[in-house]
């Protein structure tokens, strides 16, 4: 198999490259060369995909599959798809559950309504960029295109900072505000499971849209935070706090307390999507304990300094805000 990865040096793209090499595939990447060299066996093509003339380096090759992790202007996905349509069998795009019209429906499958978007757009918000890119790729590849609509992606090399924040918070020890309920069901995907599923899908000739995350409840807030506490040495003490109290303390779900979306949150559908299509097509999700353990090992290997995508704000709760919310929680109803 000959695989081309557009991107391939960051988080998800790196996992795809590593999975391809593990299978013995011939792997080529196309990016600007700013990131790490993932493996010397990779054939590296350099260029800026926002400059159409740079796509000339793709003009020669033929590939069985292309995996694209693009999240910028759809016109870049349009141009790469058009340039490759005659020489690549299948185009797999790492898309997002954000393409669904907000709020994402509880139990929604791939037929749920999507946001309005244009395949030629130069700009837009994240959902429109992702959906516009899907449309651009579909226009060139038709039923040879696959859209893997991921939710929260976790695992080693995460550059969004969600699981790294929880791990580093537990590592600091002391009393930790654990947003409840502990049995709150989560849905996410380990980047390595996403990569494996994508390349299996490429081999199997799958196409169309798939929600590619774990089943809801594969992990819970409790199993996630317990795993984080244990791998970091167990010095942290979890205090489970009622969602209403967290809200009244002015603490934001998802951004201040990464991954957490309480039961009545309007975006709760992000943890309760229907994922049976991807599971029927072979999706397997490793236990949350493995994702947490491997992510912690990676954080230790980089001196606990996780990278952050330049276009994002680092998520996480300020220590003083956490202490204040816990103090009010312990003060009981009168003090809250
Ligand atoms: N994180 C989540 O929870 C989440 C959830 C759902 C979906 N997703 C999707 O998952 C994907 C994440 O992919 P990722 O982590 O591998 O990478 P990414 O951050 O989307 O892209 C980075 C890669 O693209 C290359 N790149 C960036 N700008 C470029 C340009 N102008 N021309 C050519 N190459 C360029 C980078 O290398 P150079 O800088 O060297 O060019 C790097 O290899 C995204 O599509 C995101 O929308 C993420």
What is the element layout, followed by pairings?
Elements: E1 2-6, H1 12-22, E2 26-31, E3 43-46, E4 63-68, H2 74-84, E5 88-96, H3 126-141, E6 145-150, E7 153-154, H4 162-172, E8 174-179, E9 185-186, E10 189-190, H5 191-204, E11 208-211, E12 219-220, H6 221-231, E13 236-241, H7 243-248, H8 276-280, H9 288-301, H10 319-330, H11 332-335
Helix pairs in contact: 1-5, 2-3, 4-6, 6-9
The structure holds NADP nicotinamide-adenine-dinucleotide phosphate.
NADP nicotinamide-adenine-dinucleotide phosphate (NAP) binds next to α1 and β5.
Descriptive key words:
336 residues; Rossmann fold; 13 strands; globular; binds NADP nicotinamide-adenine-dinucleotide phosphate
Mean pLDDT: 97
In terms of per-residue confidence, which ranges show pLDDT below 50 for 5 or more consecutive residues? none
Q: Which fold name is given in CATH as the topology of the largest domain?
A: Rossmann fold
Strand order of the largest sheet: 3-2-1-4-5-6-11
Net shape: globular
The CATH architecture of the largest domain is: 3-Layer(aba) Sandwich
Number of helices: 11
CATH secondary-structure class of the largest domain: Alpha Beta
Short description:
The chain has 336 residues and is α/β, with parallel strands linked by helices. It contains eleven helices and 13 strands.
Task: Describe the protein.
The chain has two domains: 149 residues, 3-Layer(aba) Sandwich (Rossmann fold), CATH 3.40.50; 135 residues, no CATH class. 34% of the residues lie in helices and 18% in strands. The radius of gyration is 20 Å and the shape is globular. The protein contains eleven helices and 13 strands. A seven-stranded parallel β-sheet has the order 3-2-1-4-5-6-11, with helices on both faces. A two-stranded parallel ribbon has the order 7-10. It is of the alpha/beta class and 336 residues long. The chain binds NADP nicotinamide-adenine-dinucleotide phosphate (NAP). The site of NADP nicotinamide-adenine-dinucleotide phosphate has 26 residues, from helix 1 and strand 5.
